[in-house]
Design goal:
With 386 residues, the chain is mainly β. 0% of the residues lie in helices and 57% in strands. The chain has a six-stranded mixed β-sheet with strand order 3-4-10-9-6-7, with no helix packed on it.
């Protein structure tokens, strides 16, 4: 880095430091470490004499000669913080250049959790970052050049945000979590601290699926289910959860982690999962799901073709939410040739072990829905075609 402060135009200073500020006409330089702390002056005449002095805090002057060189250039390696004077004597005259050097460090770092609730926690950093003392010759007073610190807050090694404030607000953890704070100054010297905080908050989340009944003629569409709909619920909640409470609409409450519930009555069910950590008193709710159980229904085709082609080979009811079922089929002479109490089963077009003749047959069907008092009765004719 090249700089010129109160220096004649034929002379050039160079340094590996970063120029932090100016105090009066003095420069303040910060190095990353002392191993690389060098100040050099060059582009001098062959007759130049360069003298380097250290500042004496007692006498407040530059009385201690550190080094003297002759020639076109000279470098001083600095080993400790303080003030320095470079005196250059040439045939053209004498020039003096004051500067201050330091290796700023964050000597200690810690942080504390000042408060925590179910949503957030307030944290505060306690860094020890000594400032650089500079003597201002104009005012004959000491001044402090402070480090400007930047705070990087991490949760489980994931950077949350960067700020120049000591205090911050973070989300309360849902698991035992390591918090980390990394603090930097202007020249990227840094320090870090960690803090293990136990789980505090909780979050309710769940998924669900129906235990399918492999019945082709039972009607279920989308989130509208035929009763009895057996639904499996799985909690994907986070946190140290001690209580699970499932609210199945207005009909039931369950207190297991992954329940299975059979919905029987028609209607819309608002499903809620409430999770609680009794140790912290934190609760959270997931109420995003609404399930619909359909009304009872029963219907029949007018024609079926039991020819073995896999299409419409049986006379079956299309149904939803039936609790009980009774189907009778009669031939043209009024003789009952088929009887069933299972709506998932159908007539295969046989009369005993023989193939029934093509023609028109009569049926009578009675059913009861899961809703109290819901009964369905249907009768009609069906044509058997081969």
């Amino acid at each position: 880095m090249l700089f010129a402060t109160n220096i004649v135009s034929s002379q050039t200073f160079s340094t590996t430091a970063k120029l932090i500020s100016l105090v009066d006409v003095d420069s303040v330089f910060w190095f990353s470490d002392w191993s690389d702390a060098n100040i050099c002056v060059s582009e001098l005449g062959n007759d130049a004499v360069v003298e380097w002095y250290a500042f004496d805090e007692v006498t407040t002057n530059f009385g201690a000669l550190l080094q003297s060189d002759e020639g076109t250039s000279s470098c001083l390696h600095i080993e400790q913080n303080g003030g320095f004077l470079c005196k250059i004597t040439t045939l053209s005259g004498v020039s003096e250049h004051r500067f201050w050097a330091d290796v700023p460090v964050i000597s200690q770092l810690s942080f504390s959790i000042d408060s925590i609730d179910c949503d957030q926690m307030e944290v505060t950093a306690q860094p020890e970052a000594p400032s650089t003392r500079v003597y201002n010759f104009a005012s004959a007073e000491w001044q402090e050049v402070e480090q400007k610190l930047v705070y990087d807050w991490y949760v489980a090694d994931t950077l949350q945000f960067t700020t120049n404030r000591k205090d911050a607000i973070l989300e309360s953890p849902m698991d035992d979590t390591e918090l980390k704070l990394v603090v930097h100054n202007q020249i990227e010297n840094s320090n870090q601290a960690t803090y293990l905080v136990g789980s505090y908050a909780v979050m309710a989340r769940f998924t669900y699926s129906e235990r399918k009944r492999e019945v082709a003629n039972e009607i279920t569409t989308g989130d509208a289910y035929s009763a009895p709909a057996e639904i499996e619920f799985k909690s994907n909640s986070k946190g140290n959860i001690t209580v699970y409470e499932w609210i199945m609409g207005d009909v039931s409450r369950l207190y297991e982690k992954d329940p299975v519930y059979s919905f029987q009555n028609s209607g819309e069910y608002k499903i809620k999962l409430i999770v609680t950590d009794e140790n912290t008193g934190c609760s959270n709710v997931d109420s995003t799901l609404s399930l619909t159980i359909t009304d009872a229904f029963m219907g029949f085709p007018q024609v079926f073709t039991p020819n073995g082609d896999g299409v419409n080979d049986e006379f079956r009811a299309a149904y939803k939410s039936l609790k009980s079922f009774d189907l009778k089929i009669y031939n043209r002479w009024g003789r009952r040739i088929y009887y069933s109490t299972d709506p998932s089963q159908g007539w295969n077009g046989k009369e005993g072990n023989a193939e029934a003749a093509e023609g028109v047959y009569m049926y009578v069907a009675e059913a009861e829905g899961f809703d109290k008092g819901v009964k369905i009765r249907k009768h009609g004719s069906v044509t058997l075609v081969r």
